[in-house]
Amino acid sequence: MKIPVTSSRILMIIAGLLLASQALRAEGEDETAWNTTLKQQFFPNRAIEEDQQTLEITAPYRAEDPALVPLQITSKFPQTKENFIKNITVIIDNNPVPFSASFDFTPESGKADIATRMRFNAYTHVRAIAETNDGKLHMAKAFVKASGGCSAPIGTDLEAAKARMGKMKFRFDGDKATLGQPNPVQLLISHPNITGMQMDQISRMVQPAHYVTEVKVSFEGKAVMTTKTDIAISADPNLRFYFAPDKAGELKAEVKDNLGNTYSASQAVTP
Amino acid sequence: MILLASRYLIWVFALFMLMSWDQATAEELSLKEIATGVYVHQGVHQLPNQHNRGEIANIGFIIGEHCIAVIDSGGSPYQGFALKQQIGKHSQIPICYVINTHVHPDHIYGNLAFKAVGVSFVGHHKLTQAMALRAPFYREKAHSELGFALSPEHFVPPDQPVKDTLELDLGGRTLRVTAHPTAHTDNDLSIFDTQTETLWLGDLLFMGHVPVVDGSLNGWLSEIEKLRKIGAKQVVPGHGPVVAAWPLALMGEENYLKRLQTEIRAAIKAGKTIEQAMNEIGQSMRPDWQLFDDFHKRNIATAFAELEWEDD
Ligand SMILES: [Zn+2]
What we know:
The complex is a heterodimer. By secondary structure, chain A is mainly β.
């Protein structure tokens, strides 16, 4: 999996817009963008299996708010040293920037599940591609109709998100962690995640892109989940995932954005 | 090259649509005079689509001795022209102001019809930014869902941005325009006509049509507290009847929003996920509102993401 570098970003956005407009014209659950371009771009010459044994993706068929579409990716087996999911990449075919996020997992993750909220610009497939530790690729996909009306895939109150930018919270399912078991945890990151996409003819006050690019979660210095993210992640990025502590310790999140800002937060975990 | 070609085609399409509209007989836009010189066209409680062309909001105008102020220009370029034509039939007094109550398509897509020398566009100081951020997406949606092409020129930004309040003298009557903090959207304006004590709230007030939270739930509720104190005789909602009793008209919306707030706070406290909240909260309010299934879940999502941060 290659993360797009800045130099190719503009081209990717143009390509994405073209694909998106083509997709709009082709009614129905069209997969042209994936089959003709995206698959080769992100997974050149690799076989991808659409099996039911590795992962499942849950997204609403009708996206109520295109700025905030809940997405859940559920793995079908626990993470063990022998058998685990190394990475899950999320691609939203018809978004201006199809690459949405990439999550690296370890056996310490406990379970390679991830839930987050994303922006959807159009009627599109969203696909999660998992790479297991044997190097094989497995895919699950869902179709989402971004609903119309007055909504737009931005945030509703960017100023509020800006005012508390960099604030983070961990949320656990209770006050005690269960050792040796996957424990669910939620990480809330306040950041406006501005897409930078706008119509410059209207506004001379350009809002440049400003979004979270990386989230590293570790427990006692050992990686739990490392995430690369792009503009599809909703404002105030929210991640639900698992970690499997073997002792008391510190869960830590380190966040970077595209302007080079870094934020971190940690939370003591007690069994 | 392809980009250029398709842009050119959109222009040709837009021109064709405008020409064919001009040649066709304009549909009469029904208007009601709800107070002396205050005219309102009633919208419909429907999702914007190709049939209604997005012409779903209450729009209208107020006539002074020297000037007319348009309040919201319509949900399509056609409706903008139709409104302009109706105004011409009612009065020869010039249109001096077009006030946009906020960025939503059903309130601004008629703007271009009014653009002329001597016409000033009035909007919230954040309206230009909101238009710029939303326009790329809105243009695609207009094309795919409403059946017309929008050019960047259709998004006429305010030349009189309002940060607090602004008084507009129409001759013999003054309109007090107020910019609100984030509520329905982050760019809501209200208008108070001092002569008839009519309060025009745009989408700060929904009646019948379920309220749509596209700004801040908490912000909206605290604006409602402040609005209630305005000594108006009557109110024009953005969606609902052309006129309603004040402040009684606020009751339904306030109940709905308060219940969302209470139940979402409880869900967050109980450690529920946004998905659970969207499926569970407030379902018993369905009979009270039209378009409930189209907007209720999105309101929960928006408000949930806001209330997650309210203790900070
Ligand atoms: Zn509105």
